[in-house]
Specification:
With 1462 residues, the protein is mainly beta. Among the domains are: 1-154, no CATH class; 458-571, no CATH class; 582-675, no CATH class; 1198-1427, no CATH class. The protein has a 71-stranded mixed β-sheet that branches. A hairpin with a 2-residue loop joins strand 47 (825-838) and strand 48 (841-855). The chain starts with a helix and ends in a 14-residue tail after the last helix.
Length: 1462
């Protein structure tokens, strides 16, 4: 059977039979060329052709292999096959022009009959496995503009359970691959496929292409007649999850995606393609764009224009402008403003609706620049940069500067209503109104700003109100940048602007600006600006002062081609410029004018025919504001003219004075005239003062010859103007366009020695340098004085390379070094000094010899220094020595090595009786007379920047003086001084003062930083050491001799040395504090002088802390013992002083800058108060124990509480009504209270042994303080006499006459007081009611015997008008004691009358009297004393001297009794 069926003719007949049967039954045209039966039972069909109803190919199969499971079914039209293999299938589904159904629909309808129905039909085709190889599928529609809808080539399919049952088709597609004609290559497609007349289902769909994987479920719902309106009427439902798609491949179907965009997404889709809802969208792109939310798309595939709509409700849209534009360049690219590119990465939440013409955005956006909350309605988005908008914008900490590309603008927070159009500066035209809560501009945050106005096309017209704490501003007006000519028309009221805090002014720590600014100006540039700017009522305050400017006006105008710029401010500058010029060329014109003097100068290219005439009067106030370190004198002016033709340049500058920092220039005049044949420049300065050098009578003149500017200058210099300079030099520009300054023969006289520069007048002696001074070359600069010669040559390049060579020949060291206080160097210098610097490291190479080297005239020997480097400049050998005829006192031998940027040293030092006297200048002002010699060895090793110094020195004859304390100390011999790191170490060194031989032990160290910045850290311990030995000097705060026992430390840098002592005073201590009794006007407390720093601190409300003073600081914490004597000198001239011994505790702080503070208490044990009054009264008081002096800072403000007693014997009769015939003991007490500098004295008299009657009368006479004071002064002035009652008021004015009276009276007064004789000078009185002449009065007081007393005085007038007016006047009194106890006495007197009225003559009164004196306490006692004679002997107890002495001691001191008990 198989053999028969294998016969070709048989196969052909079978094929014809089968197809004819089908064609007859279903009215189709199906042709099978051959039908064959294989040996295995399979059927082989070849060249199967199915024709559609238009006689075109529907299906064409080259070969089909299958197995027929039931021939009976086959004969009945049911095609039930086993596995089917189809090769070279061509399947064309085509909709012909004017037809709605496809050719496949027509073909299936024929198979179904006249009444096809959905579901199972009479036609059945099934296969368990269908494999299709190398096939083609086409979907064509002649009703479309493009007929070809789909074309899949190289189609290969494997499907199982394939079933066509009537109109339904179902299968499991295991593999499906094809190449789409549009370029998409599907590598595999798997799905459970089902097709019906109303739906098409792809369950468990997985599509793989070269770059994509699509997973999910997809289903289409339709009516067959709607398939031709696929995008509008076919409904799809899809769910995709974890799909990864290259968007380029989707562009085959929807060409709106960007290139090279990979997306991973999950989404639920529903609706038609032109009304598509994407729910639960989670999309992430390869550029990290995230789109989470729900999006509705309308008219994605619409052919109509401008009907696209995207409505998105986003929960997270994270992307960048570029990423979004790249994802959907057409849909989103045109709808997002280009300025969004500067937002960086952003996250959007909210709703956004986008159509082809408008955008409604109610979104919140977190961006890299800040937070944005917008509710905008945007239209005309087809040109988004010019789109219209209306709504509200809120920005929170948004970096506006980056967004608008303005570097000075920073973050902003605002809330604005906007209405306008345009998103870029060139096209913006909008009204704005709202609040700017915070705006950072120029690194300052402005707060509380309101704005209302219109911004359009680079124009702002409106109101701006700023109420920031550092800026109070109201702006109202117009700023217009829209045209070529910019317009400024506004008024700005600046009520307060702190320009320092606003970061506009930094050189002033305080910068407060206030003004009203009016500007009406038009310009496209500075060259065509015209109009006026006015500043009114302007003030500027800095840390120096407040500057007020009433008016400042700048006006610019044109008259034809001539421009006039007038500046008018009587406080700032007055004058103007005029001419034809370009502002940008002014500096170039000036530089060309100056450089014109050189032939080879290359001028800047500038326009021709430019000219500038200028004339300004400059006021110092503006200079003080701009440059506070500069001060100009009055009448400073500058005028001149600048031209394109540089030969016409003229300049005149004149100022009476210029102060710059610590430099002062007086009477400077500068004239420049390029057309003057005699000179080009002339400079004259009266004097120049700097902190380095002073000069006077400076003059300079120059003239140009060919390409060289020759200059001559003369001036004097130095501290006393003894230096003379006579310089002749020139300046030119070489071929390299570098400046060259060369010297002709010149001379300089320094220290009375004349030195010549270029004495040979050769072509060398030049210095060339670049404009920025980065490179300097010196060509054999030679200076000589006789045979003494110094030569310098070499170069300097920036700060890292130098090669300088300095040579000396027979040069006196003292002639070439500057004067140094307390240091004088001398000797004769020969040799060289080479300074080589490479890569920032200095590499010296030198040999210098100083013969007869002297320091402060002390001969040290010959100084030799030799430094030699190796060939690669990495190692240097050092050999330095100082030697005299006997010894080599110092040597240093070793190496210095250079490794990159580090330099190390290893040098051995040797000392042999090296004299330390040259060290004195190092500690000048603190220590002096540093002496001794040192021997030993040391090594300097380590980093050259800070090496270690290790070794040991032996010091002999060492010592030093502390000038401030006037003490000199000597070290013991053979003192070992250790050297460690950078310190000198002292251990158990014996220290002896050279005057009193008191001793102490010294320990500690003396540190330094490379032999500079010396610092002490020494400690002393002593039982008794001299620490003060000074004499009285004018303005001395203290002086005396001081010995202490205890410990002391000397520490700190030498310029701020501190000596701190803790101990107690020792025997020999005498400390004196002089008080000044003068006061100058400046001492008054209502005048205070403060420094600028104090003023600045006061204005800031800060405390001003004084810097540590330089000098010596002394801190004494002392227990004062009775070994010390303290003396307070109240008046050095008169000897008025208080001194004594006692105990106490004192803290004393003193420094060399005038500080003298004391704290503590001093209790007096014994002392003397030398009282002096009026310059002539001088008596000695004994200070009573128990007095105190308390200090609380100022030594002159100490509180004193002290009692002193003056004891003597005198007759008190002048105060008694009844005189007595004897002297009695009198004690005058003076109590001092209050400030030590001005204590308040109070006087009191005591009469220890007087009887009660006399004592009572005397106390009555001395009852008032005034009377006590007058009698006390008279008492002291007369050596112990009282003033008689009724003799008038005592003149205690302190005249010389009073002092002379006391001196003369003292001469003629007997020691026992029985004869007192003296002369007094009494000043006359001249009052309207009373006139007396001056007169000399002789006084006489004597005790003739125990019963008779005589008192008298005779006065002779002095200075009368004539002899007729001379009247001798006098008083006489004789007292007679009539009984033994002196109670009964008689008196005879002659007394001058007091003048009662003007013109009354001098008169006298005589008289005789009898008196009886009785002492009584009660009336009974009076009767008894009058009538009864007291026969009882009065017993006077013997005074206990020891008790008195004991009572005189302080309460804390007791005395043992000498009485023996028993």
């Amino acid at each position: 059977m198989v053999l028969i069926l294998s016969i070709p003719s048989v196969q052909t007949n079978l094929g014809n039979y089968a197809t004819e049967r089908l064609n007859q039954e279903f009215k189709t045209n199906i042709n099978i060329e051959k039908v064959g039966l294989q040996f295995n039972g399979d059927v082989e069909l070849k060249n199967i052709y199915v024709e559609d109803f238009k006689q075109d190919t529907l299906i064409n199969i080259q070969e089909l292999n299958t197995s027929i499971l039931s021939f009976s079914n086959l004969m009945n039209g049911q095609l039930v096959f086993g596995d089917i293999d189809i090769m070279d299938l061509v399947f064309n589904i085509k909709t012909y022009k004017g037809y709605q159904e496809t050719n496949l629909d027509v073909f299936v309808a024929k198979l179904e009959g006249d009444n096809p129905k959905e579901g199972e039909g009479s036609f059945l085709l099934s296969s368990s496995d269908v494999t299709i190889y190398n096939s083609t599928f086409r979907l064509l529609d002649e009703n479309r503009e493009t007929t070809k809808v789909l074309e899949f080539n190289d189609l290969n399919i494997n499907a199982t359970n394939f079933l066509i049952n009537g109109s339904d088709v179902s299968t499991r597609i295991n593999t499906l691959s094809f190449n789409d004609s549009r370029g998409v290559a599907v590598k595999n497609l798997m799905t459970n496929f089902k097709y019906t007349l109303s739906s098409m289902t792809f369950d468990k769909l997985e599509v793989k292409t070269e770059n994509s994987v699509l997973k999910g479920n997809l289903k289409f719902y339709y009516k067959r007649e709607d398939l031709q309106f696929f995008t509008d009427k076919v409904t799809l439902e899809a769910s995709f999850k974890d799909s990864n798609v290259l968007m380029d491949e989707l562009n085959t179907f929807y060409n709106e995606f960007g290139k090279n965009q990979h997306t991973k997404f999950s989404v639920n889709l529903s609706g038609t393609l032109n009304d598509l809802e994407a729910k639960n969208l989670e999309l992430t792109t390869s550029t990290n764009t995230k789109v989470y939310g729900n999006i509705d798309f309308k008219n994605l595939f619409s052919k109509a224009t401008n009907d696209f709509l995207m409505n998105g409700e986003f929960t997270n849209l994270t992307s960048t402008y570029k990423d979004l534009k790249a994802l959907l360049p057409n849909v989103l690219g045109a709808a997002i403003p280009s300025s969004f590119d500067r937002l960086g990465k952003f996250k959007i939440t909210g709703n956004s609706q986008i159509t082809a013409s408008k955008v409604d955005a109610d979104i919140k956006m977190d961006t890299e620049l800040g937070f944005v909350n917008s509710n905008l309605h945007i239209t005309k988005i087809n040109d988004i940069d010019n789109a219209s908008y209306k709504g509200r914008i809120v920005l929170d900490t948004f970096n506006l500067g980056t967004f608008i590309e303005e570097p000075k603008v920073g973050q902003v927070s605002l809330d604005l209503d906007v209405n306008g159009h345009g998103f870029i500066a060139e096209t913006i035209d909008t009204e704005i109104k709202g609040d700017i809560f915070q705006l950072n501009y120029n690194n300052y945050d402005y707060n509380k700003t309101q704005v209302s106005g219109k911004i359009r096309n680079k124009i702002f017209d409106g109101i701006l109100l700023v109420n920031d704490e550092n800026l109070k501003l109201k702006f109202n007006g117009l700023i217009d940048y829209s045209e070529v000519i910019n317009k400024y028309d506004f008024e700005a009221e600046v009520d307060y602007a702190d320009l320092n805090k606003l970061n506009f002014v930094k050189k002033d720590s305080i910068s407060i600006f206030k003004s009203t600014v009016n500007m009406n100006m038009n310009s496209s540039s500075l060259d065509d600006a015209y109009g006026r700017i006015t500043f009114r009522n302007t003030s500027y305050k800095n840390e120096h002062d407040t500057y007020n400017f009433k008016s400042f006006k700048i006006a610019s105008r044109f008259q034809e081609k001539t421009r006039y710029v007038d500046i008018d401010s009587p406080d700032i500058i007055e004058g103007g410029i005029n001419g034809e010029f370009a502002v940008r060329d002014i500096v170039k014109l000036l530089e060309n004018s100056i450089g014109n003097i050189y032939t080879n100068y290359k001028p800047y290219a500038v326009a021709d025919n430019q000219r500038i005439n200028f004339n300004f009067k400059i006021y110092n106030k503006i200079i003080e504001v701009l440059y506070p370190e500069v001060e100009l004198g009055k009448n400073t002016f500058i005028r001149g003219s600048i031209h394109s033709d540089a030969n016409k340049f003229k300049l005149t500058f004149k100022s009476p004075q210029i102060n710059l920092l610590d430099n002062f220039v007086k009477d400077i005049e500068l004239q420049v005239d390029n057309s003057n044949p005699l000179f080009n420049t002339y400079v004259e300065v009266d004097s120049i003062n700097t902190k380095y050098y002073n000069a006077s009578k400076f003059s300079l003149i120059n003239v140009t010859v060919n390409d060289t500017l020759f200059m001559r200058s003369e001036f004097s210099g130095g501290k006393r103007n003894n230096d003379k300079f006579n310089l002749s030099f020139y300046h030119t520009i070489n071929k390299e366009n570098n400046s060259v300054i060369g010297f002709k023969t010149s001379d300089v006289t320094v220290k009375d020695y004349k030195w010549y520069i270029n004495g040979g007048d050769d072509k060398f002696n030049k210095i060339s340098f670049t404009k920025d001074l980065s490179s300097i070359e010196i060509d054999r600069l030679n200076i000589n004085h006789g045979k003494e010669e110094v030569t310098l040559s070499g170069f300097i390049k920036d700060s890292t390379e130098k090669d300088l060579k300095l040579k000396f020949k027979d040069v006196r060291l003292s002639k070439i070094i500057p004067d140094i206080d307390s240091l004088k160097l001398n000797g004769r210098v020969n040799g060289k000094l080479d300074i080589l610097q490479q890569n920032g490291s200095y590499l010296p190479n030198s040999t210098v010899v100083v013969d007869n080297f002297k320091v402060n005239d002390f001969y040290l020997g010959d100084f030799n220094a030799k430094i030699i480097g190796n060939e690669d400049l990495t190692s240097y050998n050092v050999d330095v020595s100082i030697k005299d005829d006997i010894k080599q006192s110092f040597n240093a031998v070793g190496d210095i090595k250079v490794r990159g940027k580090s330099t190390s040293i290893n040098v051995d030092l040797g000392f042999d009786r090296f004299n330390l006297s040259p060290l004195n200048p190092l500690l000048s002002g603190v220590l002096s007379n540093i002496r001794g010699d040192a021997s030993g060895e040391a090594t300097i090793v380590g980093d050259l920047k800070r090496p270690d110094i290790v070794g040991t020195l032996t010091l002999n004859g060492g010592g030093f003086t502390i000038p401030y304390l006037n003490v000199d100390y000597q070290f013991n011999d053979n003192v070992k001084v250790g050297l460690e790191q950078q310190s000198f170490l002292f251990s158990d060194v014996q220290l002896t003062d050279t005057k009193y031989n008191s001793k102490a032990e010294l320990n500690g160290k003396l540190s330094h930083n490379n032999l500079s910045d010396w610092r002490l850290g020494l400690g002393l311990s002593t039982d008794r050491l001299l620490v003060l030995d000074t004499k009285a000097a004018e303005e001395s705060l203290y002086y005396g001799t001081g010995f202490v026992g205890g410990t002391a430390s000397i520490y700190g840098p030498t310029e701020e040395l501190v000596i701190s002592v803790v101990g107690e005073t020792k025997k020999g201590t005498v400390f004196k504090i002089p008080l000044s009794d003068t006061e100058s006007f400046g001492d008054n407390s209502f005048i205070h002088f403060i420094t600028p720093e104090q003023k600045e601190a006061r204005e800031k409300g800060e405390d001003f802390v004084l810097e540590d003073v330089e000098g010596l600081e002394l801190d004494f914490d002392l227990d004062v013992t009775q070994d010390a004597e303290l003396e307070i000198i109240i008046n050095k001239e008169t000897g008025h002083a208080l001194k004594g011994r006692g105990v106490g505790g004192l803290l004393v702080e003193i420094n060399t800058n005038g500080k003298f503070d004391m704290w503590g208490d001093f209790s007096v044990f014994e002392g003397v108060y030398n009282f002096a009054y009026g310059g002539l009264v001088q008596k000695q008081f004994i200070v009573q124990p128990g007095g105190t002096v308390a200090w609380e800072g100022d030594p002159l403000k100490a509180q004193i509480n002290m009692l002193a007693t003056y004891r003597t014997q005198t007759n008190p009769s002048p105060l008694l009504d009844n005189p007595i015939n004897r002297s009695i003991p009198v004690e005058l007490n003076i109590t001092l209270n209050g400030d030590l500098e001005r204590p308040v004295p109070s006087f009191d008299f005591e009469f220890p042994n007087a009887n009660s009657t006399i004592k009572s009368e005397l106390q009555y006479r001395l009852d008032s303080d005034a009377e006590k004071e007058n009698q006390a002064l008279y008492f002291l002035a007369t050596g112990g006499s009282f003033q008689s009652r009724g003799s008038g008021e005592l003149n205690v004015s302190g005249t010389i006459a009073e002092r002379l009276n006391g001196i003369v009276n003292g001469i003629f007064t007997s020691e026992d007081g029985k004869i007192n004789f003296g002369f007094n000078y009494e000043a006359g009185q001249n009052r309207p009611d009373y006139q007396t002449d001056d007169r000399v009065v002789a006084t006489f007081q004597t005790q003739i015997n125990d019963k008779v007393f005589f008192n008298g005085s005779v006065g002779v007038p002095v200075g009368g008008a004539g002899e007729t007016q001379t009247v001798i006047a006098g008083d006489l009194e004789i007292n007679f004691l009539l009984n033994e106890d002196g109670t009964l006495s008689a008196k005879v007197f002659n007394r001058e009358n007091n003048i009662q009225s003007f013109g009354q003559n001098v008169g006298y009164t005589q008289g005789v009297g009898l008196s009886y004196n009785v002492d009584f306490d009660t009336f009974k006692e009076l009767i008894r004393n009058l009538f009864k004679k007291n026969t009882e002997q009065q017993t006077i107890p013997k005074e206990n001297n020891q008790a008195q002495e004991t009572e005189a001691l302080p309460s804390f001191i007791s005395v043992k009794s000498s009485k023996k008990e028993g």
